[in-house]
């Protein structure tokens, strides 16, 4: 629907810069103008209200509050907003202001314009990548939107600097109705950040565009529709003799109709037949924002910090391929145009380009500010239109390390296998810089930068991809095996159902969008999707510690279903099994890539023709829950849509383990989807309800027999379960299943059955926290479920916000070494630490603790807890070892289309809590498996019951290239012991993390050499703070190693800062943390009998750190893990 035009109403507004301002020289360099300081570093032409809020009057852009700048004073317009609610800002905290705002529904910011145009130009020999950010706030809320908006444009560098029409033209295109009507001379690309809604309205400007629409980002193409341009190109039809009013009418009519107009007679003679304008700022692309552009409308003291930043990324290659995207409020980048060849519609790319920003308010008002600007050649840019979230895949190590990455530009991923190398000359371990294979390359084909070789892509039809039909595993193909309901889900919103999208998901690229704009589906950079929260899971030869006859130490008369020696026979039979690395990706698939094998002598073999180390995909699985959601009528969430923003699908780390049923041993791979497969995308709040929670199980015993025949698919896919599952004695237990974040664990239980243990996840319908147990019948492998709920749901939210509780990870503990789980420990996101009692041989007697072991005061536990024992102190009962549960607090909410990744506020920490209630266990356990216990104690425990440690120093140790930390070594005076001369009243320890930086724990800790090892995370600045620099920040953090028994420093420094056998001191203090910015959970490997931590950093590279076993943190794991 057409809307009335908006006139700026400023007679003195300049529409062109005088011809004396000639184009400056073109430069192929990096231009970065943060615009937040006292002056700009570059030569801009500043017009009308353009000024720097922290400016001092020097440089090319005036200072807003300087005496020589009078634009706003002349209009009695009080400067509002800024960093603190008034201007000027302090240097470093300012912005480029184009128009002023208001403090209420007044006229303080009405009818204002502002623009800057570069005198300098940018050479296009290597293309151009531009990043800039805007904030719009503090307006009068006219018609619910406020002022017109902002534009950014590129113009031919050979033309003099100009500004376009006002009103809906936003200073770029020509205007059909406005008194300031000329479009930018030599305009090539204009981006309209359109609050009011007229930039895309052909009733207001140009002859193209859909219609009026507020809160829209639009991209217009080239044009030269202005009096000077028309007069020069068509002098016969636009004579000099026309009056000023008729010149205005001539340009406006030409703009509105898109044809040369015949004014040769001094009046409008209409269209000149056959003389359509080649370029009239044609509409190239649009995207409607997820929410309003303007913020803080009609408030008394608006501030920039509470505005909504939008970061834009524009890439234009020298041959005319255009990509443009934006990130709203730190959210995932929303594409408007991706790799489109615009030269046919837009003309060739000029040899050089200049830059311009413009804004207007019309009869409304808003503060319009640019907070940073950056331009550089294509290929040099390290920024992206969106706040980077963290690389979070950890490594698994054998003879190789496996590093997973993601790229937020077009969302694609990599998984590389790289050798671990030992150099005897330097006595050091490193990671090979050249990969043995890269899964992105094996799926996509072509030249592989990671390996330096060319790779032939796997044919889509040859891939073995399976899914779940709702009742059985089936091949993922468009055939009779795929139920009609799933076909309907895959084609939702399509004009007619077809298998095209399924073929696309399998890897067919024939219908991807071409550079000319033809095609149905999004053009992918590579076939492997982004890998964010799923870590690689390596499955090789069986290696669980299940040798010898099975004896239940609590129920010695029980007859085990596993025959004596059966596991040794299984291990021998599968000793040369193909190694497969499994990882989930947000292309909707769990992938399995082959990676060599170990021969009978235990040596790694990578060059065997039948079982090569080449990273070829041997299996993929699309969970049924993902198949139901990977297509969406919301294009931003639909994986195949050209308007795809981002979504999460298979975003959790799978777990693997061996189990016995049906007279044989099997190896299973079991996983959840993390925050993936929700119908509305990742949950953006703690009170939101998940719709995508699911768990799948695959039989991966023999990867060489994987096939996508119906029979093989049915045998490989054990099952998939969602929130409709039913439990023994509880048909509605599925209401407790939320997004399945944690890695499931396969363990044997006291009732003689194997089980899969997993937390109930986050965001469930009930909002409670609990443990799910999937039991596997030893006779036939059939599955049944039990749910042990804690009873702690929204009503127990310590913040009183009725948020949803849940358990992400669980940790089984085997207290007597019989390889049968006795207790399961877990923390919930309300900060409660729980123990689940599975010691009975009757599942009806399994139960959750009646009360938490400890409460953190609302600090969430979103990772696995580590369970270990520490030596006793004293004599008698006090000499027994103590069961200690170690964990960290913190949480991250995922990035969405409209919000950045959100971390917990400061005040998080590391904890070690004594499970003092062992009386029941000691009554049935053997004498060698008893633990220190108390008859009674405070429950739940709190921080006041714990010994406080502290970070004592940070800095560079001698010879170190990274920052290290020292921590205190306060002794824990255990309750009921004589550990200290007095004050023996503590139940563990706490190490607070720095609150100012919001440091927290979002990765799982491990125990090794008596130390708790964990990567901490220091979140990046807010979306607004990052928008001030045009450089996306990533989290940082420390790898901490503290004593399991005290939470403090060990006897010696634990980390080498130089990957050598030297373990430095910092100011004579023992080093307990090292600033590697590691992600995920570190793996421990040994080389030449020395232990090393192998992990991945936020930048995606691998890092190896030698650790000191002599530090001796005095503790041992009670839940076994593989140390490779």
From TrEMBL:
UniProt keyword annotation of Calcium present: yes
Domain PilY1 beta-propeller: 528-928
MF (Gene Ontology): metal ion binding
Pfam families registered for this protein in UniProt: T4P_PilY1
Record key words, sorted: Calcium, Metal-binding, Signal
Signal peptide as annotated in the record: 1-28
InterPro entries reported for this sequence: B-propeller_PilY1 (IPR008707), ConA-like_dom_sf (IPR013320)
Descriptive protein name: Type IV pilus assembly protein PilY1
Provenance organism: Cupriavidus alkaliphilus
């Amino acid at each position: 629907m057409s809307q009335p035009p908006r006139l700026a109403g400023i007679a003195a507004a300049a529409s062109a810069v005088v011809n004396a301002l000639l184009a400056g020289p073109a430069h192929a360099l990096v231009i970065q103008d943060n615009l937040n300081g006292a002056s700009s570093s570059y030569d801009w032409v500043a017009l009308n209200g353009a000024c720097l809020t922290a400016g001092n009057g020097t440089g090319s852009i005036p200072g807003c509050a300087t005496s020589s700048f009078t634009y706003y004073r002349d209009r009695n317009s009080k400067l509002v907003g800024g960093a603190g609610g008034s201007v000027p800002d302090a240097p470093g905290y300012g912005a480029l202001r184009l128009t002023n705002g208001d403090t209420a529904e007044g006229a303080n910011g009405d009818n204002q314009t502002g623009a800057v145009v570069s005198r300098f130009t940018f050479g296009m020999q290597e293309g151009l990548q531009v990043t800039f950010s805007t904030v719009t706030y503090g307006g009068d809320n006219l018609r619910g939107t406020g002022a017109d908006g902002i534009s950014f444009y590129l113009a031919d560098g050979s033309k003099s600097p100009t500004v376009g029409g006002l009103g809906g033209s936003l200073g770029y295109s020509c205007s059909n109705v406005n008194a300031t009507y000329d479009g930018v001379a030599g305009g090539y690309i204009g981006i309209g950040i359109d609050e009011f809604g007229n930039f895309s309205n052909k009733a207001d400007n140009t002859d193209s565009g859909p219609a009026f629409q507020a809160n829209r980002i639009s991209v217009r193409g080239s044009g030269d529709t202005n009096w000077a341009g028309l007069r020069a190109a068509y002098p016969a039809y636009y004579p000099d003799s026309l009056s000023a009013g008729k010149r205005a009418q001539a340009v406006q009519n030409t703009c509105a109709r898109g044809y040369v107009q015949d004014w040769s007679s001094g009046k409008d003679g209409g269209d000149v037949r056959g003389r359509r304008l080649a370029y009239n700022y044609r509409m190239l692309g649009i995207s409607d924002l997820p929410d309003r552009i303007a913020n803080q409308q009609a408030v008394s003291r608006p501030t920039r910090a509470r505005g909504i930043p939008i970061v834009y990324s524009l890439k234009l290659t020298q041959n005319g391929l255009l990509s443009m995207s934006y990130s709203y409020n730190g959210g995932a980048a929303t594409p408007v145009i991706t790799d489109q060849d615009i030269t046919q519609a837009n003309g060739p790319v000029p040899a050089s380009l200049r830059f311009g920003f413009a804004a207007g308010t019309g009869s409304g008002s808003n503060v319009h500010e640019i907070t940073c600007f950056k331009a550089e050649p294509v290929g040099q840019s390290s920024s992206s239109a969106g706040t980077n979230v963290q690389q979070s895949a950890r490594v698994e190590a054998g003879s190789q390390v496996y590093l997973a990455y993601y790229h937020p530009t077009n969302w694609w991923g990599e998984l590389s296998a790289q050798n671990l190398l030992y150099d005897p000359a330097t006595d050091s371990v490193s990671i090979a810089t050249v990969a043995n294979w890269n899964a992105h390359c094996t799926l996509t084909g072509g030249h592989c930068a990671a390996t330096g070789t060319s790779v032939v892509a796997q044919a889509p039809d040859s891939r073995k991809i399976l899914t779940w039909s709702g009742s059985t595993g089936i091949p993922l193909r468009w055939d009779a095996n795929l139920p009609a309901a799933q076909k309907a889900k895959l084609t939702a919103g399509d004009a007619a159902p077809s298998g095209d999208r399924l073929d696309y998901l399998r890897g067919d690229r024939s219908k991807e969008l071409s550079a000319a704009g033809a095609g149905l589906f999004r053009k992918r950079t590579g076939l492997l999707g982004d890998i964010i929260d799923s870590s690689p899971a390596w499955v090789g030869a069986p290696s669980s510690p299940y040798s010898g006859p099975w004896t239940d130490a609590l129920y010695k008369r029980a007859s085990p279903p596993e025959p004596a020696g059966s596991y040794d026979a299984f291990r021998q039979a599968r000793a040369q099994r193909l190694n497969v690395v499994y990882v989930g990706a947000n292309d909707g698939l769990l992938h399995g890539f082959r990676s060599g094998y170990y021969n009978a002598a235990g040596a790694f073999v990578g060059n065997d023709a039948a079982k090569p180390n080449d990273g070829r995909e041997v299996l993929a699985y699309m969970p049924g829950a993902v198949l139901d959601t990977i297509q969406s009528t919301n294009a931003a969430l639909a994986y195949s849509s050209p308007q795809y923003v981002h979504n999460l699908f298979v975003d959790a780390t799978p777990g693997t383990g061996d189990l016995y049923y049906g007279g044989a041993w099997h190896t299973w791979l079991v996983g959840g989807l993390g925050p993936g497969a929700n119908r509305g995308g990742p949950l953006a709040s703690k009170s939101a309800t998940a719709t995508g929670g699911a768990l799948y199980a695959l039989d991966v015993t023999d990867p060489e027999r994987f096939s996508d025949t119906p029979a093989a698919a049915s045998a490989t896919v054990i099952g998939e379960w969602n929130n409709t599952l039913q439990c023994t004695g509880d048909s509605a237990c599925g209401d407790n299943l939320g997004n399945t974040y944690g890695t499931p664990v396969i363990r044997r239980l006291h009732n003689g059955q194997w089980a899969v243990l997993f937390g109930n996840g986050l965001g469930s319908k009930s909002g409670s926290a609990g443990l799910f147990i999937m039991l596997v019948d030893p006779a036939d492998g059939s599955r049944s479920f039990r749910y042990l709920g804690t009873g702690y749901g929204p009503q127990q939210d310590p913040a009183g916000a009725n948020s949803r509780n849940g358990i992400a990870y669980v940790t089984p503990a085997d207290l007597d070494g019989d390889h049968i789980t006795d207790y399961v420990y877990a923390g919930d996101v309300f900060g409660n630490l729980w123990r689940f009692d599975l010691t009975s041989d009757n599942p009806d007697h399994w139960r959750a603790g009646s009360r938490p072991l400890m409460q953190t005061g609302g600090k969430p536990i979103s990772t696995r807890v580590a369970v270990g024992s520490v030596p006793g102190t004293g004599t008698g009962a006090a000499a027994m070892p103590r069961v200690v549960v170690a964990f960290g607090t913190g949480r991250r909410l995922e990035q969405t289309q409209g919000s950045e990744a959100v971390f917990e506020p400061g005040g998080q920490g590391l904890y070690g809590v004594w499970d003092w209630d062992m009386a029941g266990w000691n009554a049935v356990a053997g004498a060698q498996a008893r633990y220190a216990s108390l008859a009674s104690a405070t429950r739940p425990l709190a921080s006041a019951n714990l010994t406080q440690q502290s970070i004592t120093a940070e800095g560079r140790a001698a010879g170190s290239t990274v920052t290290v930390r020292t921590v205190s070594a306060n002794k824990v005076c255990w309750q009921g012991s004589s550990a200290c001369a007095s004050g023996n009243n503590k139940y563990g320890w706490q190490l607070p993390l720095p609150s100012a930086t919001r440091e927290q724990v979002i990765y799982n800790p491990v125990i090794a050499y008596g130390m708790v090892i964990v990567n901490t995370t220091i979140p990046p600045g807010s979306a607004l703070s990052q928008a001030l620099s045009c450089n996306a920040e990533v989290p940082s953090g420390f790898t901490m190693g503290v004593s399991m028994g005290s939470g403090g420093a060990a006897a010696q420094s634990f980390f080498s800062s130089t990957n050598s056998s030297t373990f430095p001191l910092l100011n004579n203090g023992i080093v307990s943390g090292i600033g590697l910015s590691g992600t995920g959970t570190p793996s421990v490997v040994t080389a030449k009998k020395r232990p090393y931590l192998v992990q991945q950093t936020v930048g995606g590279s691998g890092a190896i750190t030698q650790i000191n076993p002599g530090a001796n943190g005095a503790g041992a794991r009670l839940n076994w893990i593989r140390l490779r």
